[in-house]
Amino acid sequence: MNWKNLLLFVAMFVGVFFLWDTVVIYPIKVFVVFFHEISHGLAAVLTGGGIQNIQVNSDLSGVTYTWGGSGFLTLSAGYLGSMVWGSAILLAASRLNNDRPLMGALGLILLFVTVRFVPLTLNAFGFVFGLVVGAVMLGLALKAPESVNDFILRFLGFTSCLYVVLDIKEDLLSPYSSSIQSDATMLAQMTGIPAMVWGGLWFLIALGVLGFTLYFASRTEQKRFAAKRSLAI
Asked: 10 Å Cβ neighbour count for 178?
């Protein structure tokens, strides 16, 4: 166990707790929603379908319109997919010696999806957010020191994982969840299995992924950052 990494995650948790409803965490929440919707679309594509468009709103809601593919896997991919994205970002940032290409790759993914699938006329907020945040991530990859990229990616991955767990709990396991049109309610309509069951299953999986991620991320050796800055995306 690397105690410096563990203390870093504890400090992040404290910071996230006190900043949860502030402008500091809000862009990360929107980022998670963006990749939640991307996960829906990716599942549709991988199962033989396609994406019509993606919309992400300022109230942290979102929708992905797809065609074809597996409806079951496409609906299931939202929360679980965004959890995998957050876990992968945190683990990669904890283990890679050069985080700048990862930051740049995430920025390029966000820019590509925004330009290709987020219609400006239907979803101005999502379009502007995707362009601005994607461009900022590319700028960080090109100009910011390695230590800055490393910290931002760790904070982004950690907060993303935590937000997914809390979002599942609030949206799917609350007493009012049955009246909300969510991934779980649509899956319930498709399968006949109550939305609460799907929500509980996703919640347990998300908790397990969060525990796995924090365990392995905290076991990595402390990084040493070189003074020389280079980037190869």
From this structure: 14
For residue 229, being part of any structural domain is answered with no
**195-226 pLDDT tens trace:** 888 888 988 998 899 888 888 888 776 665 55
Is 26:57 a contact under the CB 8 Å cutoff?
Answer: no
SS (H, E, C) the chain: CCHHHHHHHHHHHHHHHHHCCCCCCHHHHHHHHHHHHHHHHHHHHHCCCEEEEEEECCCCCEEEEEECCCHHHHHHHHHHHHHHHHHHHHHHHHHCCCCHHHHHHHHHHHHHHHHHHCCCCCCHHHHHHHHHHHHHHHHHHHHCCHHHHHHHHHHHHHHHHHHHHHHHHHHHCCCCHHHCCCHHHHHHHHHCCCHHHHHHHHHHHHHHHHHHHHHHHHCCCCCCCCCCCCCCC
Is 88 domain-assigned? yes
Range of the domain at 30: 3-218
Query: For residue 26, is it within any domain?
Result: yes
Q: Is 232 among the domain residues? A: no
Q: What is the domain count for the chain? A: 1
Alpha-carbon 116 to chain mean position: 19
pTM value is 0.87
CA 93 to chain centre: 14
55: nearest Cα among 105, 137, 97, 114: 114
pLDDT in tens, 46-94: 999 999 999 999 999 999 999 999 999 999 999 899 999 999 999 999 8
